Amino acid sequence: MDLGIKGKRALVLGASRGLGAAIAKSLAAEGADVVAAARNADAITEWAKTTDGSVTAQKLDVSNAAEVDAVLDSLLESGNIDILVNNAGGPPPGSSTGPSRTDWMAHFETMVANLIHIANRCLPGMEEAGWGRIVTISSSGVEQPIPNLALSNGLRSALVGWSKTLSTEVASKGITVNIAMPGRIHTARVDELDAAAAERLGKSVEDVATQSAASIPAGRYGQPEEFADVVTFLCSERASYVTGSKIRIDGGSIRGI
Ligand SMILES: NC(=O)c1ccc[n+]([C@@H]2O[C@H](COP(=O)([O-])OP(=O)(O)OC[C@H]3O[C@@H](n4cnc5c(N)ncnc54)[C@H](OP(=O)(O)O)[C@@H]3O)[C@@H](O)[C@H]2O)c1
């Protein structure tokens, strides 16, 4: 199947490792011109050396509003962004009463407000072109809150409300807006969360990971490429009638219908 995105310009955030890097590689392999952004641009340059297709590394800290605007100014000067993959690091684990007001506000800025702002900067060009794709990486926690991840469960739900609202506003303009929800995809972030859970529960990391995998109907963590393939499809011409959706990539973890 030709995904129809050859020559489309994609901006993938949080792309120095994990899910963002896998999505950037997958889009590049399908012929998109990918700008892969993260704070550690050297890591992007490094993985790009062994990747097929066009990848440009861009240093960007999405927690820094001034840097966000400067980078978007520069990128948009040389053309539209056709595909935006909204992604960044997850917040630290913690209970609902753990984070302070300052913590909530700081993470809201990084995980919600600045990602919405980046989408707003890309939208005029998409509207002008009559084509655009915005995929936001969320979490299964927005459907089934994950214990001890209050910041993540709470803030990502705000992005779901925004994404759905935006999808209805731009659907007639050839722009689709969707949410991709990872369950447990094996990245460094998941290893870090397993290590934190092991310490909190007084168990070994291996025990935590084994129990976690056993709780997933598929019986294992997903691979970043399995996640990236679905996101790449959502970014494609072929997914032109999929919008306003939340797509689970979770090996069956969410038990609700
Ligand atoms: N993996 C899963 O199963 C899973 C499940 C549910 C939710 N999620 C969420 O999905 C997202 C991606 O997951 P992942 O597993 O790929 O996480 P990860 O391995 O921690 O990767 C996060 C990426 O975001 C970048 N990043 C972090 N802070 C940033 C900032 N301030 N500005 C720009 N880039 C930033 C990191 O690069 P730099 O450090 O170089 O900036 C890195 O490339 C995270 O938000 C995670 O919480 C993942």
From TrEMBL:
Q: Which domain of life is it from?
A: Bacteria
**Its Gene Ontology molecular function terms?**
3-oxoacyl-[acyl-carrier-protein] reductase (NADPH) activity
Transmembrane regions? none
- Keyword field: Oxidoreductase
Q: What is its EC number?
A: 1.1.1.100
Cited InterPro entries: NAD(P)-bd_dom_sf, SDR, SDR_fam
Keyword match Ligase: no
- One matching Pfam family is adh_short_C2
UniProt record similarity statement: Belongs to the short-chain dehydrogenases/reductases (SDR) family.
The molecule here is called Dehydrogenase with different specificity
Its source organism is Roseibium alexandrii (strain DSM 17067 / NCIMB 14079 / DFL-11) (Labrenzia alexandrii)
Q: Tell me the lineage of the source organism.
A: Bacteria, Pseudomonadati, Pseudomonadota, Alphaproteobacteria, Hyphomicrobiales
